[in-house]
Amino acid sequence: MKAFQTICRQLRSSKGFSVEPRTRVDFSTSSYSCSRKKKVNPYEEVDQGRYSDLVQSVLSSRGLAQTPESLFEEDNLLYGPVSKCKPPKQDEAAKVPGNWCPLFNPEKSMKPNATSTPTIPLRIPLQRNTIPSVTKVLQQTMTSEQIFYLERWKQRMILELGEDGFAEYSSNIFLQGKRFHKALESILSPQGDLKERDENLESGYVESVQHILKDVSGVRALESAVQHETLKYVGLLDCVAEYQGKLCVIDWKTSEKPKPYIRNTFDNPLQVVAYVGAINNDANYSFQVQCGLIVVAYKDGSPAHPHFMDTELCSQYWAKWLLRLEEYTKKEKNQNIQKPD
Q1: Can you tell me the mean pLDDT for 108-120?
Q2: CA distances from 26 to 20, 30, 32, 33, 184 (A)
């Protein structure tokens, strides 16, 4: 034992030798310092509530035949209801009609004398000829958007009423409009039958325009044909009379839906201004018109909406009408070229 202790003392006294304990290294399995990020499923970030209707419609329509009605419902789900906002304006200001002709005729008096004002309204019959009518020009030059909405309305009505029902509905609408115009002609004409006027007052459409008729006076023309001698088109206007003291071309319209703004009347302003331009360039009319009025009457008798077109507004629509007329002329020329001899 003494020998062992002696050896230990000798080792301690030696240089470069140490018996101090080394640093202890611990290995722990309770924590992992290099933890990895958890993989996220991208489908968990999708707004499930927002697309629930779309998913349900897709799953529910599997294996089912599509019908026009189901297509309309699918359009509503995918794109929402039809927008009621005003469509964006086309850049028509940059287009200048090549067939430019002034709206107003400087050779005609703006305000005819009382002696030249006819006591009996003009009723010039419309002559059937090769000259296109205002109605035909507007129908043949409708925009693709107008055609789309018109066709979609037609298909919806056919779904609701059927082919025969829709034909009957269209016929009734035409007859109601014709009777309404006949009633107004009787009311505004100085030669109208008093008994017939009283019977016409029972009409809902006539009741609708009573507050407008109070401001109408000095009737110059009723259901009278007009022709633009330079631009070569014809039309049959409803009425030319003074409205609130201003001579106007008045166009009476019927509608089942309210049309409180002039933009709701579609191409009606173009029709009115086409008649204004025709009167001002028709030798059968000694006077000149500068304004227009569109009156939308309702079957239930609710107050009609009057849309007055002053000189400035008529001038704006006149440029648009000339563009439509020019477009119609080009289409007719192209069709004639394509026709075989």
Answers
A1: 58
A2: 18, 12, 14, 14, 107
Contact call for residues 268 and 253 (beta carbons, < 8 A): yes
Q: Which of 2, 251, 257, 331 is catalytic?
A: 251
Tokens representing 222 are 């009723």
**Which token pair is 309?**
């077109």
DSSP 122: B
Contact call for residues 92 and 323 (beta carbons, < 8 A): yes
Specify whether the CB–CB gap between 69 and 155 falls below 8 A: no
Rg (CA), the chain: 40
Q: Tokens standing for 22?
A: 């080394």
Beta bridge partners of 227: 234
**CA-based nearest residue to 309, from 258, 280, 271:** 271
Contacts of 327 (CB under 8 A, 6+ apart): 141
Q: Is the pLDDT of residue 91 over 70?
A: no
SS3 content of the chain, % helix, strand, coil (to 5): 45, 15, 40
251 catalytic? Reply is: yes
The catalytically annotated residue of 2, 38, 75, 238 is 238
Strands laid side by side in the 216-228 sheet? 216-228, 233-243, 246-255, 291-298, 305-309
> Does residue 209 surpass a pLDDT of 90?
yes
- The sign of the dihedral angle between the CA atoms of 282, 283, 285, 289 is positive
Per the annotation, the verdict on 320 as an active-site residue is: no
| Rounded Cα–Cα distance for residues 255 and 270 (Å) | 18
Grouping H, G, I as helix, E, B as strand and the rest as coil, residue 246 is strand
For the question of residue 214 being annotated catalytic, the response is no
Reported pTM: 0.68
- Between residues 6 and 176, the one the model is more confident about: 176
Q: What is the pLDDT of residue 208?
A: 95
Better-predicted residue by pLDDT, 114 or 128: 128
Cβ–Cβ < 8 Å for 294, 116: no
Q: For residue 27, what pLDDT is reported?
A: 46
236 near 224, Cβ under 8 Å?
yes
